[in-house]
Specification:
- By secondary structure, the chain is an alpha/beta fold.
- The protein has helices at 41-59, 98-106, 115-126, 185-189, 191-203, 209-215, 222-230, 234-258, 273-287, 290-295, 307-317; strands at residues 6-12, 16-23, 28-35, 69-73, 77-78, 83-84, 96-97, 110-114, 135-140, 144-150, 153-154, 262-266, 297-300.
- α1 packs across α2.
């Protein structure tokens, strides 16, 4: 493998650790996939290191073949130190020293970055954003997050917390967000928010019979609400109409703030593109200032479940991506 530029990217999620070995052209050479352990710090760190070693073995790589390792992980974090501070989906892992542990065990350079940020890098380098100078990535799923690419580099800000798109406040004083504030984009438009609105309507006796029937015997997750709306249920349709409107407001704000050449949208709710995303993009374009609306394309992400691992590997290959 000498002469090739190869890196390892790790996507550390609440349910799985996906790790890949990837070359500079974006070709995946090896991979490892395991459930994320929830038995505390030592077990989590060991699992991360093991996943890197397995991905390298599956690609036939040794330490000398690999330019570096990068881990995309959920915040809050100190990316410069490579420490996860209070990850909500990893109980018992406060102040998790990912970078120092992996560097000591693997004897390789290691970087740690927010998972939405590395996803932005992945789509920019190897996904829908190829060839675009300025891009905003938005993930719309259980929560809402994102990252901002400016002239080929990731905007991180003075406190290394830039790009928290999901906590842009769209309707102060309304829905309470998991972050503790009110009216965040995530609190109004995420999959979790859609489910909460439907559950509240059923519990309060305000739901139409179709949604009540849909809720019978199962939890009211966002896909259930989407299906009820598709079948004509008026309560479900009203919930989704509000989500579309505020998705549009959020996208319009991104146009005004960053004037990107492209907004790339990924995440689980893009499966409902025609219902939730496309009409929101149309609303944003109609209501935004003419110039930023005219120069920006709003498109679907391309990398799917691989986006975090690909983005992390891309960061390890080119650490100067960070601004």
């Amino acid at each position: 493998m000498s002469g090739e530029r190869i890196a390892v990217g790790v996507d550390l999620g609440g349910t799985k650790i996906l790790t890949i070995a990837m070359d500079a052209e974006g070709k995946v050479l090896g991979r490892s996939l395991h459930p994320t352990p929830h038995e505390g710090e030592d077990v989590a760190l060991h699992a991360l290191a093991t996943s890197v070693e397995e991905a390298m073995r599956s690609a036939g790589l040794t330490q000398g073949d690999v330019a570096g390792v990068a881990v995309g992980a959920p915040g809050p974090m100190d990316p410069d130190a490579g420490v996860l501070l209070e990850p909500p989906n990893l109980p018992g892992c406060q102040n998790l020293p990912i970078r120092s542990y992996l560097q000591e065990r693997l004897k390789m350079d290691v970087r740690v970055e927010n998972d939405a940020n590395v996803a932005a890098i992945g789509e920019y380098r190897f996904g829908a954003g190829r060839g675009v100078a300025d891009m905003v990535y938005v993930t719309v799923s259980t929560g809402i997050g994102g990252g901002v690419m400016v002239a080929g580099r990731l905007m991180r800000g003075a406190g290394r917390t830039a790009g928290e798109i999901g906590h842009m406040v769209l309707a102060h004083g309304q829905e309470i967000c998991p972050c503790g504030r009110s009216g965040c984009w995530e609190a109004i438009c995420s999959g979790t928010a859609i489910a909460h609105r439907a559950q509240e309507a059923v519990a309060a006796g305000r739901a139409s019979p179709g949604l009540v029937q849909a809720a019978s015997g199962q939890s009211l997750a966002a896909p259930v609400v989407l299906q009820a709306a598709a079948e004509g249920d008026p309560t479900a349709q009203a919930i989704l109409a509000r989500v579309v409107e505020y998705n549009g407001v959020g996208l319009m704000n991104l146009l005004h703030l960053f004037s990107p050449g492209m907004i790339v949208i990924g995440g689980g709710l893009t499966h409902a593109w025609d219902t939730l995303i496309a009409p929101a993009a149309d609303w944003a374009k109609r209501n935004a200032f003419q110039r930023p609306a005219a120069v920006c394309r709003i498109v679907r992400a391309e990398l799917g479940d691989m986006v975090g691992a690909v983005g992390a590997a891309a960061l390890a290959l080119d650490p100067d991506t960070l601004l």
